[in-house]
User: Which sequence fits this backbone?
């Protein structure tokens, strides 16, 4: 309900600005970023409805914060950060905690034809703490360079690499071997 | 495993996002309401007024009065400085090496305050008590003088019962359940009672004097709603969004600042960390109650305080917080601020692991007196991993001696991109794509579009060929190169790579690596085996590689 409420308010606010022809710069800025934002949200939430709501709500928040966006800022990192925070916010409550111990819940069905390894990986990613999951999704699901991962996480590229490293360890992936050639 | 292999596996595992509409930036449904009859509009206005009044009344009635400092659930009300006391804790150890399964353990025990000695409770057991859908969390009830298999937030205010969610059908998990039941188990009477059922997923948020607060989400996904259950009657009423303190108010989350959950305190408050774990970063530890955010601590990662909380529980002393690493334990109260109690007697870190982690999680109210248990024991040392088999040695000379048949294109010529062919690929490992480019028996696979910059690539080898494969490449329409890299490949002169191990009948060979064209253009890739030579041509678009 909360998501729907904000979505409605967001649309109304944007509509008002559209009438005044003042939101064009914002629309021009964020529209090309929607595919990446949707991918980020889906990677984090693994649920189409949640992803849609998350991106919608993040867009509204971005629009609200738009006047504070500094000239020369990295727009993509700025917008993806807002989307990431929105996704994390949705998983901050108890629904997130059950992932530690139970199979992933309320996710869209896994893609057809997944073998056991892929299913295990999907479950393992779902159980990661939000920050680790975000690092993994940004790096390997959105294919961002560590520098860009760091921008979204709000840390240095070195720190971003360290966070990815920790997440890979949690996923029981040979992190050292992978990151040596990163 | 190399990065590109993992990337492909992750994409396989998560799948691609379904097409979802872009956020609406223009009016789409604003006109709908204009179509309603006037009577409907009046009804809607009336309902809205009633709703607003109800919300205002409920907000006034439930208005937070500041940070609460509750008594323990079923515990003994103690003044803030009533020491000694023993704080029940879960001691959690985790250790892992690469390419090995992780090992972990949970010990239940007490930390004696203020001395700080940790003692394992040898009598701790939860055997025979029902467990809900969420397992692995334990609580020490001072009222029962025993451990129960429930998280802090699921305990009744008197500490004599706990609530849990049972997923149906029996044995279901949150991913495949068809309905949920909320149960209350009275430990004293040893009786289990269903108090509510739902066709949605249910998670217990908190149990206090107002009832059992649960978070409810449709099983297929959707909007989360909060409901409060009367444990005596089973009556439910919807609760406002901020009744769940884990929902951090937007105002407390500045854009670009990461946040992490520390946990619920068992009394309707929720502790979160704002700010990353990276050294030198400013961060805050905040507690949220009824939408009100209170900062417990602000500092810089790596500062002398080293406050890195893990787990929380509030009692009459204040708010107890564990610390990553196990020591110290923290006690925060409005009157005394943050105090630390160094913990001794922690189990030694196991040897032979690249990664170890340990934490002490508060699991109940600090009970009067000193606890005498047994010393903690650590995890066993790591076992020595079995070395990976060495790849066979290959004499690449016969293959490198084969001529490179790739031909430069004349200026302006169309890039003769290889058509995509459907394949039926069976592997004994990760799922493989069912298409590729080329003439076989080796095919280029992976993305269907190529961009300047590094992308993952898969070379699939038909099981009708089992020998080594030499892979060379060149740009066909100008200067530039296409480099290949990845685990299990031998780097050879001129940017070529050799795959010593390919297929293993009846399974296809699958090599995953990185493909990096230096610029947009037309590229040829030649495969040479002991019994064949074939090629594939790909067109590379300008970079960077787009997300997805």
Assistant:
């Amino acid at each position: 309900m909360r998501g729907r409420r904000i979505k409605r308010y967001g649309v109304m606010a944007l509509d008002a600005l559209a009438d005044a022809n003042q939101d064009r710069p914002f629309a021009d800025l964020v529209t090309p970023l929607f595919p990446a934002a949707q991918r980020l949200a889906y990677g984090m939430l693994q649920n189409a409805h949640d992803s849609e709501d998350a991106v919608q709500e993040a867009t509204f928040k971005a629009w609200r914060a738009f006047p504070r966006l500094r000239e020369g800022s990295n727009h993509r990192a700025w917008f993806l950060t807002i989307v990431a925070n929105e996704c994390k916010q949705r998983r901050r409550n108890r629904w997130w905690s059950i992932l530690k111990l139970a199979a992933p819940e309320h996710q869209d069905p896994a893609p057809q034809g997944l073998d056991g390894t892929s299913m295990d990986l999907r479950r393992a990613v779902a159980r990661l703490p939000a920050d680790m999951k975000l690092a993994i999704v940004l790096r390997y699901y959105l294919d961002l360079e560590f520098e860009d991962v760091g921008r979204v996480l709000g840390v240095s590229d070195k720190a971003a690499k360290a966070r990815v490293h920790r997440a890979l360890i949690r996923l029981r992936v040979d992190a050292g071997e992978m990151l040596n050639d990163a | 495993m190399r990065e590109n292999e993992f990337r492909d596996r992750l994409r396989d595992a998560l799948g691609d996002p379904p097409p979802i509409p872009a956020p609406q930036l223009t009016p789409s449904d604003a006109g709908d309401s204009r179509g309603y009859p006037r009577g409907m509009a009046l009804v809607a206005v009336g309902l809205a007024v009633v709703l607003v009044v109800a919300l205002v009344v409920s907000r006034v009635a439930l208005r937070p009065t500041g940070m609460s400092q509750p008594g323990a659930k079923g515990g003994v009300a103690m003044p803030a400085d009533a020491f000694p006391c023993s704080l029940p804790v879960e001691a959690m150890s985790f250790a892992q090496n690469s390419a090995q399964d992780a090992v972990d353990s949970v010990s239940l025990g007490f930390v004696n305050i203020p001395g700080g000695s940790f003692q394992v409770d040898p009598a701790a057991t939860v055997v025979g008590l029902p467990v809900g859908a969420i397992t692995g969390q334990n609580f020490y009830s001072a009222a029962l003088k025993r451990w129960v298999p429930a998280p802090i937030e699921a305990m009744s205010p008197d500490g004599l019962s706990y609530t849990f969610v049972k997923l149906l059908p029996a044995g279901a998990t949150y991913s495949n359940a068809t309905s949920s039941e909320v149960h209350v188990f009275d430990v004293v009477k040893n009786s289990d009672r269903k108090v509510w059922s739902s066709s949605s997923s249910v998670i217990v948020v908190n149990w206090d004097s107002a009832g059992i607060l649960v978070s409810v989400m449709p099983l297929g996904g959707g909007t989360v709603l909060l409901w409060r259950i009367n444990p005596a009657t089973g009556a439910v009423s919807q609760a406002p969004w901020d009744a769940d303190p884990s929902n951090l108010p937007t105002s407390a989350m500045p854009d670009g600042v990461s946040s992490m959950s520390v946990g619920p305190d068992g009394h309707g408050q929720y502790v979160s960390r704002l700010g990353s774990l990276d050294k030198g970063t400013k961060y805050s530890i905040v507690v949220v109650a009824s939408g009100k955010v209170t900062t417990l601590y602000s500092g810089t990662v790596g500062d002398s305080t080293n406050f890195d909380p893990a787990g929380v529980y509030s009692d009459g002393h204040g708010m107890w917080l564990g610390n990553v690493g196990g020591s110290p334990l923290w006690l925060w109260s409005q009157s005394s601020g943050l105090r630390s109690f160094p913990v001794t007697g922690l189990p030694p870190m196991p040897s032979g692991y690249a990664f170890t982690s340990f934490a002490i999680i508060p699991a109940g109210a600090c009970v009067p007196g000193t606890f005498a248990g047994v010393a903690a024991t650590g995890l066993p040392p790591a076992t020595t991993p079995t070395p990976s088999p060495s790849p066979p040695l290959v004499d690449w000379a016969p293959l490198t001696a084969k001529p490179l048949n790739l031909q430069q294109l004349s200026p302006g010529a169309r890039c003769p991109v290889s058509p995509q062919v459907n394949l039926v690929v069976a592997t004994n490992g990760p799922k493989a794509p069912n298409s590729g480019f080329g003439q076989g028996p080796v095919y280029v696979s992976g993305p269907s579009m190529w961009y300047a910059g590094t992308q993952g690539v898969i070379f699939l080898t038909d099981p009708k060929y089992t020998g080594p494969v030499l892979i060379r490449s060149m740009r066909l329409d100008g200067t530039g190169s296409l480099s290949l890299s990845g685990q299990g490949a031998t780097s050879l002169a001129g940017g070529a790579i050799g795959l010593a191990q390919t297929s293993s009948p009846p399974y296809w060979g699958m090599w995953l690596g990185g493909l990096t064209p230096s610029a947009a253009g037309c590229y040829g890739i030649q495969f040479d085996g002991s019994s064949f030579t074939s090629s594939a041509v790909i067109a590379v678009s300008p970079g960077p590689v787009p997300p997805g």
About this structure: The CA atoms of residues 461 and 537 of chain B lie 17 Å apart. Chain B has three helices and 34 strands.
